[in-house]
Amino acid sequence: MVGKRALSRQSLPEIIANDLRERILSGEMAEGEAIRQEALAEEYDVSRMPVREALKRLNAEGLIQWANNRGGSVTKHSLDEIGEIFDLRILIEVDLFRRAIPLMTPAHFAECDAILEQMEESYDRDDVARWGILNHEYHSALYSSVGRSLTKELLDRINVQSERYVRMHLSVMKQREPAKQEHRQLLDCARAGQTEEACALLSAHIERTKDQLLQMVAAKRATGDGA
Asked: How far apart are CA 42 and CA 4, in angstroms?
């Protein structure tokens, strides 16, 4: 961690947490990488207090493992844990989608269409970070017709864990076209009221990502390349 990172002085813990989160999700800060509060304070040119608050937030999100007196590191999930993250997504998202489809209105479909257009633009620009954000927004929009705020809150936490792997899948395995087609098909099925077909496609969509990611991560770890 070298160099200075200029920051606004407003809401420093949130700004630092957002920047660190993006660095973790993008892979700039690798799984298992040591985190030193003092070094981050110097890098961001702030006192240790806002850094400490930012690290507490990321610890609560599960992106880092942090102990005030012992330092910490970027969370490194086992292969089983990565698989569990995506299995939980399937369980929760398929249930939400099944409940949402009968309640979707033209406004919901329009919102999904608008996000899809932005996602496709991000594909063309090779903007993986933007795609990751929009991917979460799109999946959330598919289920937005359902209340179930507690379920969605749980899903948001799981998606923080899964996003860095989703980005890895997109950038390393070059899965733009399959992802683009499947996202469009999900909306088409929902618009046609084909609930079971849509849910089966969603389950297969997440399962395919999980299987390919586990193979890739296992291979990288076996050769000592990467996390």
From this structure: 7
If you count them, how many residues does the chain have?
227
Per-residue pLDDT of 57-76, as tens digits, reads: 999 999 999 876 667 899 99
C-alpha span between 106 and 121 (Å, rounded)? 23
- Please give the radius of gyration of the chain, using alpha carbons only, rounded to the nearest integer: 19
Q: Give the single-character DSSP code of 167.
A: H
Say yes or no: domain 79-222 is CATH 1.20.120.530. Answer: yes
Of 10 and 188, the one with more pLDDT: 188
pLDDT digits (tens, 9 = 90+) for 71-106: 789 999 999 999 999 999 999 999 999 999 999 999
What is the pTM assigned to this prediction?
0.84
**All structural domains of the chain with their residue ranges:** 12-74, 79-222
Place of tokens 């899964």: 162
Round to whole Å and give the CA distance between 199 and 140.
15
CATH-assigned architecture of domain 12-74: Orthogonal Bundle (1.10)
Torsions phi, psi for 206 (to 5 deg): -75, -40
Q: Give me the phi and psi of 53, to 5 degrees please.
A: -65, -40
Distance of alpha carbon 48 from the chain centroid: 27
